[in-house]
Amino acid sequence: MGRNVLPPSLLIAREEALLKDFLRALRKEDRLVLKRLLAGVRAHSQAIGLSDVEPFEAILLAMLLEIQKEVEALKEALEGAKKHP
Amino acid sequence: MKSGFLLDAHETPKGIGLWLALDDGSRPRLERAFSPGFALENEGRKTRRAVAILQGRFGKDIRVVEGKGNDLLKGEVPLFEIKAKDPWTFERLKAQALRSDLFEGLCVYGVDTPAVSQFFLKTGMFPFCRFAFKDGELRVCDEPLALDYPFPSLRVLEVSLEPEGLDPMHARRAFALCLRPLGEEEGLVLEACDKEGIESSLRRFDPDVILAPFGDGYTLKRLLALGVRTLSREGFHARLGEDQTIASYGKVYARKGPVLLSGRLHIDPRNSFFYPEVGLAGLIELSRACAIPLQELARTTPGRAITRLEARLAGQLGFLVPFQKGVPEGFKTLETFLRLDKGGLSFRPLVGFFENVAEYDFASMYPSIIVNFNLSYETLNCGHPSCQTRLPVSGYGVCSKRTGIVPFTLKRLIERRETLKARAALESDPRQRQALEQRQKALKWLLVVSFGYLGYRNAKFGRIEAHEATTAIGRELLLFAKEIAEARGFKLLHALTDALWVQKEGAQERAYVELEHEIIRRVNAAFKPVLPDGVPWKVRLEGVYAWVRFLASKAYGVGVGNRYVGVFQDRTIKARGILLRRSDTPPLIREFQEQALQLLAGVSSIEGLRRQYSTLQGLTKAYEARLEEGKVRPEALAVRLRLARNPLDYQKRSFLAEAAQSLLAEGLGVSLGETVRFVRVQDKALRANPLWLYHDNPKPIDTAYYAGLLQEALEELLPQSLLKEKALP
């Protein structure tokens, strides 16, 4: 008995490990960007663990989510700057 | 007619020895003949052959009776009941049968139920039960789960070592003994080799309970070796157990072999899980409920205690208790497996400081799920044609005709605990209140482990499907509550298994209370119990934080579920996962962080926290100065770590390995699972000095290390970065 399915944090770590060679083949500046993207994914580990889609697909969705949040925050800041130059 | 309570029971060669504590102060011993036994389901030729072999080996020492019994799964089954003539024969019988493959493939019941437990079940007796006593006959006038029982009047003697604070197994020095009746200020200090003085003091105090830290590993073994005759009420009668190493949740623990006395109850607080947690009142509560003699209970785990309680209740209901459950995990598709083999839902909190945050907790969430959805090994996919109920999420079938043993047990525990908590809240006498608190906390521990035991392979009434169903429903409940909160405009900051942290700008306490009521109402409407005798779902507003900080992971910068610190509006502090909560944090650092947190307890806003920074910096400097000036006791600097392997098996030169290996070099026994306390010093040859070594030969302490810990403790509460940040909403 006991758990056999990996908990979300280890699931993310496993998917990251699969990307090891991909990361190596990137330029340093690109690699750092991707690592930041991957780090942000951890904020959504509970959703990745709960989803029924493939873990990597859920990870990509979590990345998109973080990017969209940043886009919206930037838009908001831009709007604010336009209103109060 | 006399009356009293049962102090202790133990096996003897002929039956069961009973120590009575009579109300007149006397402590007589009785002996009752008893024939313990077990049963085999009569499955035909193979069973008859096994019975014939046992009869051949044990002859007249056993008696075989054919009969019938109730199996939890199969219903009525034919049986061979095998009764040993006495407990010692039972032990031999059990050992021989279990060592050989005699029982291979057979359905065996009750072979691992101790003779004392069988005696209790048969006679209706249990530890600390009240009885009337006349002409050598006992008449029990008490119930194990009776809520109101008089607290037994016990004479308690503390037997501690002087000097205090040192582990005698890890220090080569002479210790004196301090004998102090509980509740008295002054104790009697005696040389550890003063046999006559110790004997006469024990005779004079005549304690019912001996509370001896390090009693199992050191003190009582030394006293027995010295020939002290009055430890037990029966001369030299003491039962000695073997040292054990056990693994639990990834940690290894060393358990010293117990020293069980006769006629007195020996508790070693250092070798007991329960005693430090729940005290004597909690131990008595569990000893009565689970019918486990107190000396054994003090040294057992909550998991074992609840299994014994379940087994006792199964026996009382007339069911046979299986030795090994014959239900393997059912087949399931990979998709189902991936969907269900998950734990509780654990969000990553939003990192940072937040004001006006409410925390809601589901009260006894997992036990309530087990009760309300009737989750037990015999009720899952029961196969009754009329049982059509399907569980949420997992879709497993569940029995709707009969309550399972696990929910039957847990319902009683949940209700009992609720009553004790309510009484404690109303109690004005501090001693009574403490006893009620200890009793409810003892029950809490049984409830805490009850869920884990559903998935444990050796659990008698566990089953992996029940475990999966529990966590699946738990995740659903938490998401359900989160959705209710979000629909009312609250922002989810964090959610962890059975708790939610939410925030809403400008919300007053009333809004949070209304949310609590709505969650309770809707959860109770949506998650109806399978059987009518369920328990209501309870969600409590734990409180509203004036401020709370969710800390980030050092490695990834995202929030960590169980690292947070905050102050409720009533100034109560709540902290999880920070230095003061860690067992390896030196006491000095813990004291500093507690003091700093007390200073912050009066602050009601993030802006207020910023203003406290310089005060906390001043406090840090004061502690650093104490370190520099050498004004700190070595005990306050001790790092306490547990050995996860034998000292010589460490490949790297860690601080723990250094300290443990230096103990070995001094000829002191230290092994896997034991804790070692050491002081970090400025000595490249031995950077981690075991505490007693430091006492004998102090060296300059590693102030940089301790100053670093002070800074870390400060940063956990009030990071410098907060000064630069704009106040968060």
Describe, in plain words, how this protein is organized in 3D:
The complex is a heterodimer of chains A (85) and B (729). Chain A is mostly helical. Chain A has one domain (8-83). Chain A is 76% helix and 0% strand. Chain A is built from 5 helices and no strands. Chain A has helices spanning 8-18, 20-24, 28-41, 45-50, 55-83. In chain A, helix 3 (28-41) crosses helix 5 (55-83). The mean pLDDT of chain A is 89. Among the domains of chain B are: 334-402 and 459-559, B family DNA polymerase, palm domain (Palm domain of DNA polymerase), CATH 3.90.1600.10; 634-700, Ribonuclease H-like motif. Chain B has a 6-stranded antiparallel sheet with strand order 20-21-19-22-23-24. By secondary structure, chain B is of the alpha+beta class. In chain B, helix 10 packs across helix 11 (405-426) and helix 17 (613-628) packs antiparallel against helix 21 (703-717). Chain B is built from 22 helices and 27 strands. Chain A binds chain B through residues 1-5, 7-8, 39-40, 42-46, 49-50, 52, and chain B through 329, 335, 337-339, 341-343, 345-348, 455-457, 462, 464, 467, 475, 495, 553, 556-559.
Strand line-up of the largest beta sheet of chain B: 20-21-19-22-23-24
The CA-CA distance between the termini of chain B, in Å, is 72 Å
Number of DSSP strand runs of chain B: 27
Biggest contact: A-B, 17 and 25 residues
CATH architecture of the domain at 334-402 and 459-559 in chain B: Alpha-Beta Complex
